[in-house]
Amino acid sequence: MHIWDGTATDAPIRWDDRMTNKLSIRISPEFTSFVGRGPCDPAVLPPDALIFGFGDIGEPAVSMLLPEDVVGTADDHLVVFAISGAACDRLFALRPKADGRWYLPANLRGLGRAVVAVEGDSEVDDMLRSARSQELLCQLFAELAAGRMVEVGGSTSLSELDITRVAAAHQLVNEKWQEKLTVGSVARRCGLSKAKLTRGFRELYRCSVAEAVSERRLQRARQLLAQSDLPISSIGYNCGYMSNASFTRAFARRFGMAPTKMRGREATA
After folding, report:
1. Is residue 155 part of a domain?
2. Which regions of 45-180 does DSSP assign to beta strands (E)?
């Protein structure tokens, strides 16, 4: 088995040749990432491991697994993380409950797909898998710590199929926010009624479709303010606002200051 531990391996294996175990990426003595089909190699689990299974990445949930699940249940997960409890305490001051299962927001599903997308077998490819795995782990714990992860079987009235469709709608908003998106247009594209889409966003993401679109636009505007010299009026227009006044009002409500003040603060930071 090809294990990345910061040194080159003597006998790299092809992605298509992994017929038994998942690819193991040993990021540190406390954290191993497993990618691909098949069981995980229990010999490389860190001590006192907490194990996260990410399904087929397109699925809407991440589940806590037991150590005995790494051969068997884990086969169905394209990405599995095993991190020691001590590392969770030290790095994140958080230990998710052993039987936890949460709906995955679109940003985490995208990071998971990015881990799986690396298909080469070189040392550089393993470095990339390692970096993307660490980003996904950190973002997962950030979402858990902020209380933004909705538990499966908890406060939702949606079926698993509808949850998948609502998750696809959220991904659509993240990717197509520059388009003129309405509740009706998003619902039609994702096979949902407007009422179910609206309820799904409230239950899974704690916001409306319009609020999700606005958040995506304003985050992009903030990025452009910091990283470009574009006039503020152009940034607002590029992010979907038809007037500078409406952009300034929305930005100030979200970030507590006007775009001009934000740009000045970033320039002096």
Report:
1. no
2. 49-53, 61-65, 79-84, 101-103
